[in-house]
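Researcher: Here's the sequence for the chain we discussed earlier.
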Amino acid sequence: MGPQLGRPVFTLQTLPDCQSDNPFSSSVGEAAGFSLHAGVATKANERTKLERLCRYITRPAVSTKRLSITRNGKVRYELKTPWCNGTTHVIFEPLDFIARLVSLVPKPRVNLTRFHGVFAPNSNYRALITPARRGKHKKHRTADAANQTPIEKRASITWAKRLKRVFKIDIETCDKCGGDVRIIASIEDPALIKTILAFLDKKEVNAADSLLPDCRASPGSSLDLLI
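Model: Thanks. This is the structure I predict for it:
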């Protein structure tokens, strides 16, 4: 996007190129614009190295400390370590930089954590090993999927169930009688919502004042009145 549409990004190379003629000297594989680094390995007993590797994987995509704006209004990003060809900085057009950031945002309803093997969602043994017993046997899952409509298959979890799962707030059960709570009206007008909330706040204040005892005069004032 932007003025540099279809062109490679500008780079600043302040170090000499240190690329080797041996194609197998690096453990980085590149194909179709993607790169895979396989030069770091850790053993089972190297817990400190494994933790450092996990922290590196879960790091943010962009470091704001190495991000700056040039005098002509372009975005300059300083690399943490120079590339093998000597590149130390990358310069983007503002629109191009925003487009690259947007491409890092995951799509809706995409699982960021993926499980494989018996922990996979479609595994027949997932319900037998997970603490919450989530997952169904293949034949039960197939029968339930056949009875569901296309809308039910794509429906996500409701916000009421999310509150109960995350914060343990159950708004579907009455805290006084223990019965089921159902929706009797849906108010979407902002002005009306503001009026109702203001009335409820005023009602709570009046209820709190009614619980206070009646005002009584001091003993000295009462004695003067009797005299």
